[in-house]
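Protein Record: Sequence and Backbone Structure Tokens
======================================================
Tokens: labelled as protein backbone structure tokens, with as many entries as the chain has residues.
Task: work out the structure tokens from the sequence, keeping to the layout shown below.
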Amino acid sequence: MIYYIFLFAVSFIAMGFSARWIVNSLTFFARFFQWREFVLVYFILVMAASIPNLVIGFFSTVENVSELFFGDVLGNSLITLTLIAGLSAVVSKGLRAESRVVQQSSFFLVFSAILPIMLIIDGDLSRGDGVVLLTVFFLYSGWLFSKRRIFEQVYEEKERIRRPISLLFRNTGSVLLGIPLLILAGHWIVQSSIFFANFFNFPIVIFGVLIVAIGTSLPELFFIITAAKKQNDWLALGGIIGNVIVLSTFGLGLIAVISPIKILLFSDFSPLFIFLVIATFLFLLFIKSGKKITSGEAVILLMVYGLFVGFEIISRIINS
């Protein structure tokens, strides 16, 4: 028992540090090579920050507990739309959503967040369903790439970036070290999750929603909060929307094609489905009304997540 507690804690710490190294280093590359701001958001924040989830997904299929990954993805989406979005709006004193791309992407977000729920309603996210999700991802990516204006702005920060070659090599080393550490940590997290779920007779999917999703959302939390602190609302909102879309379509779609995801007890997911739908439409409403998530609306989003966690804990105590 003590061994798995230690392993679980060390794995989350290792995953947090390695993900931060990777995101920090890739952000340095964006400044060093003067990449476009869109490239930073879509390919660094969203895709790179999704690596922990994909690692969890791979080892979940290997261990035949793919529902752990499904819970992780939906839990991550709920955390992103409530906890991360709410904290970002509080930090920035209101997230401005004036960008037309952000406004239009919010509709893709609603569709992408709800589509997996619709597809798994029969208890099985098949390879065909995976293909559907991947198709949605590539359609969204194609639409996004058609917006030429978002490629025009170069990512810059107020402070000037130093460009010694030594920094370039150091950040390259951080990426090369961070990726295998991330993979190893993901493997340990899945192993520990299986043990704890069996030991406490706790549905592994709920363990993924309440515990694992918190850990795998750390890279997004770090980058998005940092962007919000610097009043870079476009980066923050782009990260929030992109993270939900990529994980719900590309992440789930890829893993489902490799190994179909089955849910044995649909009731385990019902509260998550309900709260995720509520959070998704609240986020859309706040984005559309006034084109800004205010501090008051941020509190509502944070309350939704708090209510979900409270409901799950109380229901588990009652049913135990």
Notes: The longest strand covers residues 95-96. The chain has a mean pLDDT of 81.
